[in-house]
Specification:
alpha+beta; Aminopeptidase; seven-stranded antiparallel β-sheet; three-stranded antiparallel β-sheet
Length: 193
């Protein structure tokens, strides 16, 4: 079920169709009979830090087992995570989504817990990368239609196809999110929802 967004103005203003308070928490109200509110905290981890590395690995592995995606091994994943800026959303102590990105805006990993998909967390993670680096790019398996649809919806374009990109021999598309002026407009649009 998609969430109904609870809109409230705050000291920081409205962002992303949610309430963002001074502690950078995102308030999302689900459409369930008990009308429970969930407080989700956004966190950014700087390069060189491995805070929440194990939680990110656990989420990545759950996605791999369920969907056959994000197949990187621990050594590669942990090394790339430590070198990246990592944007995360936490529901209390539970990691529900993360994006690990290089300084140039290349997204190394993007994962959102399936239970939290469709609520805008993936968009906000991409928007955070774009906001910090001014550009966003990534690779996606040519067979990963969910990811390709997601990126297309955000305005990414396929730059090229790369044969045998992944360790298992799968092909990938290299994707890039528009020019810098269009990118700024898209980020503003994401943050207003």
């Amino acid at each position: 079920m998609k969430p109904a967004i609870h809109r409230e103005s705050t000291a920081n203003g409205e962002r992303g169709g949610t309430r963002v308070d001074i502690y950078n928490r995102v308030i999302v109200r689900d459409q369930i009979p008990t009308n429970v509110s969930v407080t989700v905290e956004k966190k950014v981890i700087s390069p060189g830090d491995d805070e929440l590395l194990q939680s990110a690995w656990d989420l990545k592995e759950a996605i791999r087992k369920e969907e056959g995606l994000l197949k990187q091994r621990w050594g590669f994943f942990s090394s790339a995570y430590r070198r990246a800026t990592v944007y995360l959303f936490l529901d209390e102590d539970r990691l529900i989504g993360f994006a690990a990105a290089r300084r140039d805006g290349y997204i190394l990993f993007l994962g959102v817990d399936p239970e939290y998909r469709g609520r805008g967390f993936g968009k906000r993670l991409v928007a955070s990368v774009a906001d910090d680096s001014g550009t966003v790019s990534c690779h996606a398996r040519v067979t990963n239609t969910n990811a390709l649809d997601f990126y297309e919806h955000l305005g990414f374009s396929v730059v090229r196809r790369i044969d045998d990109y992944y360790e298992d021999g799968a092909d990938a598309y290299y994707l890039k999110l528009g020019d810098s002026e269009r990118l700024r407009d898209r980020i503003s649009e994401f943050l207003r929802r």
